Each structure stands twice: as C-alpha cells, then as structure tokens.
C-alpha cells in the first residue's frame, strides 16, 4: 500500500485533476518521495486504466475519515492484530490491508484462510458503483465493468505473490501451506484465489524441485552403471525424496481435489518406479525394491492415481518376497526328495533294516527330517505332494510297492498333526490301498499251492493293511480257513486260489486303481503323470473263467496311450486270443450283442498302449503255451450266452 498512487500523493477517490496537480506540488517540498515517483503517481491517477488498478488496490468503499484512521494504525498492524483491525471493513479493503501486513509479517494459516474467504465475498458490482461515484466527483470517466474484472484478476495475482512470500518467510511454511490448502479443499469449494497461490508456491520452489529430481535421476544412473553401490543409492534417494516432500506435499491436497497428480511429482514417481521394477525383474533385489515402493509411496504417491499404482506394486513385491521365502523353506525338502530318488538302492537298504522316520540313517532319515522340519512352517499340502512323489518314484520307476507303501505310510503319520485337504486325504487312502495290494498280492502268488503259507500272509495283512481293505483280506482269510477244514484241502489248485484273489479285486472293481494327482514339484520324468502302476489290481473274472488263471491278468483302466505293466499286458494279449476264438462261436442275436459289448470294452482298454519289450516277450511266451486253455475259456463264455 505504501507504493499506491493514492498513498504517495495523499489523494482521495474524489480528488480532481487540479487537486492532484496541487498535491504533487505540495509533496515535492516534503521530500518523502522522489520527483519521479510523484510524477508516476500523478500519471496513474489521471490515466483511467492505471487509475482503476490503483483504486481497487487501495481502500475502496471507505470514507476519507475511515481511510485516515486505517492509515494511522496501518504500520502498527501485525499478523496477530490485523484480523481484529479489519473485521468491520468492506471485503476488498480488508484483503488489501491483510496483503499489506503480509509484506512485513509472516501470516499464520488462520489469517491466510480469512484472507481467502474475504476474497470470495467481494462484490464487483458494489465496488464498481463506489468507483463510479468517486470518478464523477473527480470529473473523470467512469470505469468499465469488464476492465474492472480484469483488474481484479491482476490484483489476485499480486496478492498471491505477497501471501506466498509471507508464508515462505515463516518458521514452518510447509505446514502452513499444507493446512491452508487442505482446509480450502475440504468442503469441495476452495477459494478462487487458491489455484493462483498454488502456482505461485510451485514457482517459488521450482528450482529446489528440479534440483531434487535431477539428483534422483543421477543417482539411479550411477547405481545402474555400477558407479554407486545400491545401499548408498537407496539412502541418497530416500533423503532426496524427503526434501522433495517438503516442497511438494503442501500442494498435494489441491491436486487430490482436482483428481490428478502434480505433473513433476508424477514424472519423478515413474522414474523411480522404472528403477525398482528393474531391481525386481533383472536383479532380484526384492527387499530393496520394497523399500523404494514404500518411500516413493510415502513422499510421491499423494493422489489417488499414484496411490493405486503404489499399493499394487507393494502387494506384488510382497507376494514375490513371500514366494521366495516359501521357496527357500521348501528347498531342503525338495533336495532331500531328489537325493532319495537318485539313491533308491541305499534308501531301500536302510528301509529294510530301520523304520522310516527321522532317526534312520541317510538317506531315509535325511528325507524324513526334512519333511518334519518343513511341516513346522511350510505348506502341509506341498509336503504331502513331495512324499507322494517319492512314493510314486519307488513304485513306478523301481517296481518296489513295498517301499512305496512304507514311505506313504510314514508321511501319513507325520501329516496327521497338520491340516490337509479332504482331497489329499482321499488320494493318500486310495494310494495306500493300491500300493498295499501291489505289495501283498504278488507274495500270495508266490505261495500258490501252499495254503498254510497263504493263510499266514493273509493274517499278517489283516493286521497291517490300510483300514479300507482290511475287509478284503478278512474275507479271503475266512475262505482259506474254510478250505483248510475241508478234507480236500490238499487238492486245492492254484485256479481256486486265483479265483479267491480275483474275488478280492472284484470286491474293489468300482474303486479307482490309480490317482490323478500330479506333484507340482516332481522332477522325475517317469512319475510326472502322478499315477501308481498297480501290478495286480482290477483283475475281474466277469469275462474270463477262473480256470484260465495261471498268472494274474489285471484289466487296464479305460484310456489310450497308457504304459501297461505285465499283468495288464497279459490281460490284453490273452483276452484278444479269446475274442478271436469267440468270433467263430457267436450264432444268436443275444450272443452277437454280448460279443460286441466285450469287444467294445476290450477296445476301450487295449486299443492303444505302451509296454516294455521284456514284458511283451514274457507274455507272448505264456500265450503260446495256452492255446487249449483259451479255447476252453472261449467255449465257457459262449456257452453262457446261449
């Protein structure tokens, strides 16, 4: 206000051109202002456009007496006293006086907020009416309404500069500016002067922001090129971001209200994000990347658009860190499993002498210890997969169902105290039953003709078998005991025994013989399908008379491309021989239908399969000696059709 033309000359809004000239002459003797300043003030008051700017930045709508009182107290006003002094003044005079005080004092947030509110209450029409009265009294042209609006906009810009200057001179400009901005946007209708203040605040801090941004970019480049160690680079970035926040955070609320990020802040955020993505994807520096996300999120992601990106990046990196920790936790168990697979002979040797538990010598004890340790903090489902995978390897790759069953049984005991899915429990039950049959039925086959030996084996199986198949062996035991009591026990042939064993399998003919669960971490190519290869399961006498059984035939599961074991291969070769003979024995419609049903079932199982050459040689040799038996089998089947 001290440079306003009205103040310099001591003129009023009603001063005429003659009075203004006299005021210039009087002021020349006071020596308070230079002649140049006096002439400039005169020119301003006599030029309509320049006068309008001076009029609205002075004390409009006040009488000469009011102006005199304000000027008498003006120089004494401070940040603490100005609000009380201007409380009753018209709004435009009020903001001019507050702006004047701001050139000498650092305004607090309350004074700035009252200043912004006063600007909202300025009524241009009332100001224009006041100025017209003064102009008419002074004999000067009346002001234009449009020109008044333009002048008010210019005054806003000048006020924004002095108010921001005042804030920046304070002891905590960051907090004052931030609180003012947040208070203004809180109700969704900030002062029209706020955008101008925000731009002015950014302009004053532009150099500091540019320096900080350039420093971060330089640090990133040095780190990438190897000129700066990563820990040192991260520390520099963190410190610079803190400095950046000092300048950028105060206006963040304004941009949140606008719905987008401040452009320089957004550009810097993505510069740092590119660096942290490089750390994740190329260097595997997950913890360092997480720190960068946290820092950039805290200091830069202050608006919703960047916050969403930051939160998503943080969630992704934390998941990668969790995956890495899970992998590190799983690694010892995985290695122990692979060692056990490759050391089958030693594993089997130890397992024959010692129980399969952590106390056993390596590799048995090593695997079980790794399994037990992993179960403390790891995923029980994954532990179940690894144990089952090892069991698959022993059964399928080494044809050792006994060892496979023992491994699965030991794992089942460990898993009892942990939570696994019902699906996993069901697979373990089915696999255990299949493996136990694969283990015990060949032992029964070796005892053919030795009823006492079979009884002993069955009694042992009744005690040790999985609960789901104990009943099968109990039934077999009852049959064996009955046969022993019969006087013709010593004449029992292998055909009867085979029929009994076949009956066990018939009892389970509706149960799946294999499991479809594929271990996700198995590296064994031979067990990747996750299926046990049963050696004797699913044998059925529904299509073949019991008298044909001199060696086990296991009906393969429906499907193509499977690798058949010897028992399954035996079924396909032997059944094919029978069907060739049956084709010439089919004479009635009923027989034709039955024959076609058998052929369809045979094709669904035996149309396409793989086999071991040694198995095929063995089975073909067996078939070459059974021509008469095949004929008898076919005749018996055909007889049932008639």
Task: Walk me through this protein's architecture.
By secondary structure, the chain is mainly alpha-helical. Helices cover 71% and strands 1% of the residues. The chain has helices spanning 5-9, 17-30, 35-46, 48-56, 64-74, 82-86, 91-102, 109-120, 124-138, 145-168, 173-185, 194-225, 230-248, 252-258, 263-283, 286-299, 304-342, 344-353, 364-377, 380-397, 401-415, 422-446, 451-464, 467-485, 494-507, 566-583, 589-606, 613-624, 627-641, and strands spanning 562-563, 609-610. A two-stranded parallel ribbon has the order 1-2. α20 (380-397) runs antiparallel to α21 (401-415). It starts with a helix and ends with a helix.
Keywords:
29 helices, two-stranded parallel sheet, mainly alpha, single chain, 642 residues
**Contiguous runs where pLDDT drops below 50 for at least 5 residues:** 487-550
Estimate the mean pLDDT confidence: 86
Distance between the termini: 125 Å
Give me the side-by-side strand order of the main sheet: 1-2
Give the biggest beta sheet: 2 strands, parallel
Topology:
Layout: H1 5-9, H2 17-30, H3 35-46, H4 48-56, H5 64-74, H6 82-86, H7 91-102, H8 109-120, H9 124-138, H10 145-168, H11 173-185, H12 194-225, H13 230-248, H14 252-258, H15 263-283, H16 286-299, H17 304-342, H18 344-353, H19 364-377, H20 380-397, H21 401-415, H22 422-446, H23 451-464, H24 467-485, H25 494-507, E1 562-563, H26 566-583, H27 589-606, E2 609-610, H28 613-624, H29 627-641
